[in-house]
Specification:
This protein has three helices and eight strands. It is α+β, with helices and mostly antiparallel strands and 228 residues long. The chain folds into three domains: 55 residues; 118 residues, Sandwich (Jelly Rolls); 26 residues. The strands form two sheets. Strands 1, 2, 3, 4, 5 and 6 form a six-stranded antiparallel beta sheet that branches. Strands 7-8 form a two-stranded antiparallel ribbon. The longest helix is centred in the last third of the chain and has 30 residues.
């Protein structure tokens, strides 16, 4: 029985170690983070534009909203598109861009960035009077790969391994104790004293003539001489 206990303990120990090892495996997960790029207000004179720029990575998502006191135009350009808008297209509203919103006082936008680059956020007032940008807010959502570990499996495996060690130790200890237990000391029987043989005394004999006691085996009475 003690051997079976030790074997069960070893099996539980091995299973716990395997489970603990599986719990330490590293997995990778893509996690989304959000970052505010712009949250401000601005007074924009007539026939002027204002811009902000930031570096964005492929896969980033840009979203936001703009509120103004009169209609304006909003663009998101790559660095090349921004240069072309200023030179080749001469501030045209039809120039290539990532995001284009024209002639609006309240606008929302959202776009997924296709390539890593420096991007320009442009508000262009092509009207004849100055404009108040009461609110402009731009957020960036991006993804990062993070490591994940299943510590639950790791903990359960460690507990099972500890239980297995205890059970195996109990089985081994029981076996050692039984192996070293002293044998019982035999009890020697008490010596038997032989009984003495009974002494048989010869029956006394008497003379038939005079009645005197005579020794056994005597043929003639020592007293009267008669034959016994």
């Amino acid at each position: 029985m003690r051997k079976e206990i030790a074997v069960v303990g070893v099996v539980i120990l091995v299973f716990g170690l395997v489970l603990a090892a599986a719990g330490t495996r590293t997995t990778y997960q893509s996690v989304e983070y959000t970052e505010n790029l712009l949250d401000t207000s601005y007074t924009l004179p007539d026939n002027y534009y204002v811009y902000w720029y930031t570096d964005l990575d492929a896969g980033d998502k840009v979203s936001g909203s703009i509120e103004t006191t009169q209609p304006v135009n909003f663009f998101i350009f790559t660095s090349n598109q921004f240069n072309e808008w200023q030179t080749t297209y001469a501030y045209s509203l039809t120039a290539p861009s990532v995001v284009t919103r024209t002639n609006s006082q309240s606008m929302a936008f959202s776009a997924t960035i296709q390539s890593t680059d420096t991007y320009y956020l442009v508000v262009y007032n092509d009207g004849l009077t100055s404009c108040e940008i009461t609110s402009i807010q731009v957020d960036r959502a991006y993804y990062e790969t993070v490591e994940r570990r299943d510590y639950t499996l790791n903990m359960i495996g460690g507990i099972l391994a500890l239980v297995g060690i205890i059970i195996a130790a109990v089985g081994a200890t029981r076996k050692e104790v039984e192996k070293e237990a002293p044998l019982p000391t035999p009890v020697e029987p008490a010596p038997v004293t032989p009984k003495p043989e009974p002494t048989i005394e010869p029956k006394p004999e008497f003379c038939p003539s005079c009645g005197s006691e005579v020794p056994a085996g005597t043929e003639f009475c020592p007293h009267c001489g008669s034959a016994v």
